[in-house]
Write a structure and sequence with these properties.
This is F-box domain-containing protein. By secondary structure, the chain is an alpha/beta fold. Helix content is about 30%, strand content about 15%. It is built from 19 helices and 15 strands.
């Protein structure tokens, strides 16, 4: 009797009375609630809404699928691909993809059939894997017990009832004897399971606005396994797919490979409207295609969190942009002595001068680059390689620089003067960050404070000396208290924040947010 009353009171769906309050709202408001849960990455709550009633399932499912993250699990990614194959309309609702694999995996056996079928739809033969390193019974048991993946992944990829496994209909490695793995050529699915599944997933999500691709073991150095499937699709006339809404693209790896723009040319060629590219890391175009063009003319935000870029390589990238507004380059690589050498600070400034009338943000940290003349990974900037002037950058508002990219004349030397910053900074500067600096940085800042009228927009200054074992050497730089006091008083009198490194209080703080505190 109670259940009958619930159904009568809830004509819009079959959910419990607890959903009545939400269902009484206009559908537009319900969509906003779902979008907020999606933006907060609260997919479990969103999945619960999908199960609450038929109406909520209809509204919330598309929000649930608007974001997907593989969370390092190839099975989770393959399961998501299967869902897109079975329900293509959900692929159109995906707005954000984060594709990553934490370690090397063969393609899960139960997913091989639909992966190869999906590839064939786009004209690709990815082949069948030749050998599996799985115990099929253990795999089935693990899937049934939830050993692989997590409930969030199952909620996101299985909003409808599905069978848990297709192993009975899949490939059985005992059907035939394989004398040796070398006797049969390995297929693309054997060699590049992540790249294959990732490209097919991208191809089925044409409306994505943000794409992040990170793998632990991708063979970037020689071009093997590159995103050539998407590249081939982009070369067709007309292309069978496009990524016209993709505005943010980030890529990287965790296996110290020399990843480059060429490796992901397929994504870039299909997405002419990319505005932001973050690479972690990025290297010159590879040896197998050193002159490959970089098609990023609409990119305005370009950030390299690590890698090794020569002056020629960086120029090829920066010259491809029509109007660059944000640039970041933090050098980092375990490869020592790469040829050609890393672009020097002065070369970087000269290359960026192509965008002197549009660049608003410049962040350069070359502290870990190798100085070939000394064979060391730290030391003062070599004379002639430092940045001297940014006066021509008429729109530059934020300038962040490390001590190995700027050279302050040493106190007591014949060439000692304190006009380096005064002669360098443009009038438009608002935020100045100096880290891992020489002790002479404080005196140069004091000289700058004597001409603050020349920098009317300056509102924040960050100062940090070289730390123990920092890029300038093993000794810590401690500024004189008297100099810091002068700077503190002068900046305070003009309403300018004067900051130093703060304490890390939150283990989950973003790498891009460095804690600071007042001097």
């Amino acid at each position: 009797m109670q259940n009958s009353r619930n159904k009568e009171d809830n004509p819009r769906g079959s959910g419990p009375p607890a959903t009545l309050g939400l269902l009484s709202l206009p559908e537009e408001l319900i969509e906003l609630v779902c979008e907020q849960l999606s933006s907060d990455r609260d997919s479990k709550s969103l999945a619960s809404l999908c199960r609450a009633s038929r109406d909520l399932n209809r509204i919330a499912t598309y929000a649930l699928y608007s974001r997907f993250a593989s969370n390092g699990d190839l099975r989770r990614l393959a399961l998501f691909l299967r869902t897109l194959c079975e329900r293509p309309e959900l692929g159109a609702s995906v707005r954000s993809l984060s594709l990553a694999v934490d370690s090397w995996f063969d393609c899960p056996p139960e997913y091989i059939g639909f992966v190869t079928e999906t590839a064939e739809r786009f004209g690709f033969d990815v082949g069948l894997p030749t050998v599996y390193n799985y115990n099929d019974r253990a795999l089935v048991r693990g899937l049934e017990e939830g050993e692989y993946g997590d409930s969030e992944g199952e909620d996101q990829a299985q909003s409808d009832d599905r069978r848990k496994s297709e192993l009975e209909n899949g490939y059985d490695r005992n059907d035939e004897e394989i004398e040796s793995e070398e006797d049969i050529g390995q297929s693309q699915l054997d060699l590049y399971p992540f790249e294959t599944i990732a490209q097919l997933t991208i191809a089925l999500t044409p409306n994505i606005q943000s794409l992040d691709v990170v793998a632990k073991q991708i063979m970037c150095d020689t071009g093997e396994g590159a995103f050539t499937m998407l590249e081939e699709l982009a070369q067709q006339s007309p292309p069978p797919i496009s990524l016209l809404r993709l505005h943010h693209f980030s890529f990287g790896h965790e296996d110290c490979r020399e990843v480059s723009f060429k490796y992901f040319e397929g994504v870039i060629a299909l997405a002419p409207n990319i505005r932001t590219i973050h690479a972690h890391p990025c290297f010159d175009q590879p040896r197998y295609a050193p002159k490959a063009p970089v098609n990023i003319k609409n990119v305005t935000d370009l950030r390299f969190k690590s890698g090794h870029l020569s002056a020629r390589g960086l120029r090829a990238i920066v010259s491809s942009c029509n109007r660059l507004e944000i640039f970041q380059y933090c050098y980092d690589t375990i490869y020592a002595g790469l040829d050609p050498g890393c672009a020097t600070p002065r070369e970087i400034a000269e290359i960026l001068s192509q965008h002197k009338d549009s660049l608003k943000y410049m962040d350069i940290d070359l502290g870990s680059r190798e100085e070939h003349q000394g064979g060391l990974f730290f030391g003062f900037c070599i004379a002639g390689e430092e940045i001297e002037s940014l006066k021509e950058f008429s729109c530059l508002e934020t300038f962040k620089i490390d001590g190995s990219s700027i050279l302050f004349p040493e106190a007591g030397s014949d060439k000692c003067h304190t006009n380096i910053l005064l002669d360098m900074l443009p009038q438009s500067i608002r935020i100045l960050h100096l880290k891992d600096t020489q002790i002479e940085a404080a005196a140069n800042l004091i000289t700058l404070t004597e001409s603050l009228d020349s920098f009317p927009n300056l509102c924040e200054v960050f100062l940090a000396g070289n730390g123990i074992g920092g890029p300038l050497g093993k000794f810590e730089v401690a500024f004189e208290d008297s100099e810091i006091q002068i700077l503190r008083e002068r900046f305070k009198s003009r309403g300018i924040s004067f900051l130093k490194p703060g304490q890390w209080r939150n283990a989950f703080i973003s790498d891009d947010v460095e804690p600071t505190e007042d001097w």
